[in-house]
């Protein structure tokens, strides 16, 4: 089962980082966030990726072409023109990198990788959100639902922390609890290839016209995820995810090592 990742947007709300790199290449704990996303899927045995490139897409190509070098200790012998890898890190990944246009919408990007998806059920997510989603359970829910599409629904973290008050006394702080109301699209889709037929060539975004059409056709199953989920939209989000990673409390790190 292939995993399609949207990785072409400009990430304007994270401009401090994305002026020089695409949003999926912004690092958390020394690794691009797209690496964290791929590690989640790989943990569940999904290792065939189709990445939809756009803005500064060549930097994503360069990272994966030179992945072994980026992730290993090396000895360079200039006189012999040799490179020896002293600690060789590798992943069982097959990665197809597709230029889907600098300013394309997410719907256009999905439409443009159709030939790489084939005729089998596939997975889809965004290149900026992590969570401890059990992908096996997600796929099982899709099979049980019997519809063309399944979308992971999450309750987003609150924008700010909460203060707990009793009468006129502050008794505790709660750092970024989940919002009490509203469920949102958390990515982590399971889709049949036929969903691409819902996309018009000039569709503004996968989240709008195509998904709305799928809903109207009664073909969208909700998979409600009550665990951790967080998108990296702002510098504040990046700092929060970094803190979780460096304190060893990153809930999305479902893999070993």
Automatic annotation (TrEMBL):
GO biological process, alphabetically ordered: O antigen biosynthetic process
InterPro entries xrefs: G1P_cyt_trans (IPR046981), G1P_cyt_trans-like (IPR013446), NTP_transferase_dom (IPR005835), Nucleotide-diphossugar_trans (IPR029044)
Ranges where the Nucleotidyl transferase domain occurs: 2-229
CDD domains listed in its UniProt record: G1P_cytidylyltransferase
GO MF terms held by the record: glucose-1-phosphate cytidylyltransferase activity
Highest taxon above the source species: Bacteria
Record Pfam families: NTP_transferase
EC number: 2.7.7.33
Keywords: Nucleotidyltransferase, Transferase
Keyword Transferase assigned: yes
NCBIfam families (alphabetical): G1P_cyt_trans
Name the UniProt record assigns to this protein: Glucose-1-phosphate cytidylyltransferase
Protein species of origin: Azospirillum cavernae
């Amino acid at each position: 089962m292939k995993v399609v990742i949207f990785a072409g947007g400009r990430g304007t709300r994270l401009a401090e980082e994305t002026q020089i790199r695409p949003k999926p290449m912004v690092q958390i704990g020394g690794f691009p966030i797209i690496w964290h996303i791929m590690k989640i899927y790989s943990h569940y045995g999904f290792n065939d990726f189709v990445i939809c490139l756009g803005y500064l897409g060549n930097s994503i190509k360069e990272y994966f072409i030179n992945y072994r070098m980026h992730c290993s200790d090396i000895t360079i012998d200039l006189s012999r023109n040799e490179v020896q890898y002293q600690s060789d890190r590798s992943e069982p990944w097959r990665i197809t990198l597709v230029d889907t246009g600098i300013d394309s919408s997410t719907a256009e990007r999905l439409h443009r990788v159709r030939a790489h998806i084939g005729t089998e059920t596939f997975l889809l997510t965004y290149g900026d959100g992590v969570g401890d989603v059990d992908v096996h359970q997600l796929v099982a829910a899709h099979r049980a639902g019997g519809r063309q599409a399944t979308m992971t629904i999450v309750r987003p973290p609150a924008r700010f922390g909460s203060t707990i008050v009793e009468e006129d006394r502050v008794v505790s702080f709660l750092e970024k609890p989940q919002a009490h109301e509203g469920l949102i699209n958390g990515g982590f889709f399971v889709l049949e290839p036929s969903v691409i037929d819902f996309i018009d060539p000039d569709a503004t975004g996968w989240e709008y016209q195509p998904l709305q059409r799928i809903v109207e056709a009664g073909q969208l199953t909700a998979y409600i995820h009550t665990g951790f989920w967080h998108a990296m939209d702002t510098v504040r989000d990046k700092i929060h995810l970094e803190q979780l990673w460096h304190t060893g409390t990153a809930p999305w790190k479902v893999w070993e090592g």
